[in-house]
Write a structure and sequence with these properties.
heterodimer; A: 265 residues; alpha/beta; six-stranded mixed beta sheet; 8 strands; 19% strand; B: 124 residues; alpha+beta; two-stranded antiparallel ribbon; two-stranded antiparallel sheet; 3 helices; 4 strands
Chain lengths: 265, 124
């Protein structure tokens, strides 16, 4: 199987959660006939936050109404094409309101000086113990870097983040690792900001950190994911949290093994 | 699989849902190395001297990020939602935004960004 010439944090996460979905999305590139409303919502919130942070960096404090306008515009643009799947108890209008409530709440939180928003990276992934270098670079995008070396990742979800999941979060490990390579020093802290769209919208913040052993583990995880992809190992993980909103549900149900593994190198 | 290839899977089943066979369709996009002189901009494919349509010259459609960026730029000018959609259709002279080509979208984005910068300088 031709493995990609770089590996992203989201690819690693997806392969670990459902390798068959990885195959459908990145290798077969099956068209997505519908999208989950949660994804569209999260994407529109991220777009608005990116705009806010970049505007704050340049102009100081933009108007709240401008922030909400950017969110609504992005939401509308995404809703134009393709079908969006909404849960039974949620409508487009409700999500639009929730998004505005969450962004308004975030807007009023005092902000530290910013370094940059949406920091793209592509760095070599090195095992810190052995010096072994992964054959492809690691790439990703850090949501926000504050001037005091704090790395921030934004999430939108329907529930609070489980604290027990924080130390093993590969995304935060990868961002911490990349930050060290990009800036030549460890981040002061890793902050996960979760915008929760419950009945009463809330914003929770968790702070964590990473050390050398976490980077070594990241290296091994990425390496094994590469091995799995090259070997054509793609297994459905029915019942996982991705299934509820999966765009490839029908393809997954019809899957009868990876018999077309003729592409294996 | 190369980046220019896409594989589609079709499963043919009996009426009761039993799979009969799996069909794999590989679509390969061919790209000409050099853009032909006088090639058209937009979604319309160019025509060769013998009158046949050269599919290799078709400009790809406006991408999702381009569309989202255009909506954002318009929102910053106070043109929201449905109005933004109508504005873009009128500007591009299309019935649906799916007809807009990547190059045309790119040109409008460049123009709008330049206009915004100019307006910013005038305000300063």
């Amino acid at each position: 199987m031709n493995a990609p010439d770089s590996i992203s944090v989201s690819q690693i996460n997806l392969y670990r959660t459902c390798s068959l979905k990885y195959r459908f999305q990145y290798i077969d590139q099956l068209p997505r006939l519908l999208r989950a409303s949660a994804l569209v919502f999260g994407s529109a919130v991220h777009t608005a936050l990116e705009w806010l942070h970049k505007a704050r960096k340049v102009d100081g404090q933009p108007l709240l109404e401008d922030l909400l306008r950017v969110f609504e515009a992005d939401w509308h643009a995404q809703c134009l094409d393709g079908e969006i799947r909404f849960p039974d108890d949620t409508s487009a209008e409700q999500l639009l309101v929730k998004g505005k409530e969450l962004l308004s709440a975030y807007y009023h939180i005092p902000q530290q000086p910013l370094h940059d928003a949406e920091v793209s990276f592509q760095v070599p992934l090195v095992n810190p113990t052995t010096g072994e270098v992964l054959e492809v670079p690691l790439r990703g995008v850090i949501d926000l870097v504050e001037a005091d070396d704090t790395v921030i990742e934004f999430k939108t979800s329907q529930k609070r983040w489980a604290l027990a999941d924080l130390p093993d979060n590969v995304q935060l490990t990868a961002y911490s690792y990349a930050y060290e390579l990009l800036f030549g020093r460890a981040p002061k802290e890793l902050r996960l900001v979760n915008l929760i769209r419950t009945k009463n919208p809330a914003i929770e913040t968790h702070i964590t950190g990473r050390e050398k052993s976490d980077y070594e583990r990241l290296f091994h995880v990425a390496k094994e994911v590469r091995v799995g992809i090259r070997a054509g190992v793609f297994i459905p993980n029915r019942g996982c949290w991705l299934c509820k909103d999966c765009e490839y549900d029908q393809d997954c149900r019809e899957w009868t093994g990876n018999d077309d593994r003729h592409e294996v190198a | 699989m190369t980046p220019n290839q896409k594989i589609y899977r079709c499963t043919v089943t009996t009426l009761d849902g039993q799979p009969l066979f799996l069909l794999l369709i590989t679509r390969e996009r061919m790209e000409s190395a050099i853009a032909p002189e006088g090639s058209t901009v937009g979604a319309t494919p160019s025509t060769s001297p013998n009158g046949s349509v050269n599919r290799n010259d078709v400009d790809p459609r406006m991408t999702e990020p381009q569309k989202r960026y255009l909506f954002r730029l318009l929102a910053q000018q106070g043109i929201d939602g449905k109005n933004a959609e109508a504005h873009l259709k009128k500007t591009f002279q299309v019935a649906t935004l799916r007809e807009v080509s990547k190059t045309t979208a790119s040109q409008l984005i460049e123009q709008m960004v330049a206009n915004q910068k100019e307006a910013g300088h005038e305000r300063a």
